[in-house]
């Protein structure tokens, strides 16, 4: 099934510059229906209220980390199948293992490029 | 910003805050300009827009260094606070406060912790950080 590029994507990062950069990179690859959250609790609220085809989240946020957000999403019956990509500066082995164990669909280390973002989204969603 | 800039640590903290603020302002302007260029390019003929949009993407990729730089500045700020608390002679009644603050900074850097706080390490130094390829190999191995 072809990927609907009009699907809603939720980006989560406590740093507004990063939200802006990811939003613009998504725009460059054809995804313009993008919503933002600067913390995990707001992200969870938006996920429960609206339908999102993908979550792209930072890890290092307070009070709810991206890992905790991922666990909340996977524990929620309505949300558990939502594709979730972690985009983070956390690059240690234990981080990747913890995220994978929690059910992350893919993992991008910062700093990253548009090609990596596109290839990880393709791996998770399918060709577009 | 009310900071004691008379002491070396106070001055260091003030400089870090200033760097952070000035970088934020500069990157806001960069992103404002990039967005204007991208919008203008979208109304051009594809063959004219292509090269411009490639450059826009490269600027956005380069700008993402701002996030990492901010995290490194936070690490420097924490180090300054830790050093300052370690060498500063505790005043009467300040000992417990200094202990709590140092303990909080130590906990943040406790790499051996099995709790989730042990997973919050921030960006690694060059050479210590895993590349995307290394992360991909590990991620795929975990399937």
UniProtKB/TrEMBL annotation, chain A:
GO BP of this protein: phosphorelay signal transduction system
Residues with PTM 4-aspartylphosphate: 58
Magnesium as UniProt keyword: no
Record key words, sorted: Phosphoprotein
Domain of life of the organism encoding this protein: Bacteria
Domain (Response regulatory): residue spans on this chain: 8-125
Pfam families linked: Response_reg
Protein name: Response regulator
Originating organism: Thalassobaculum fulvum
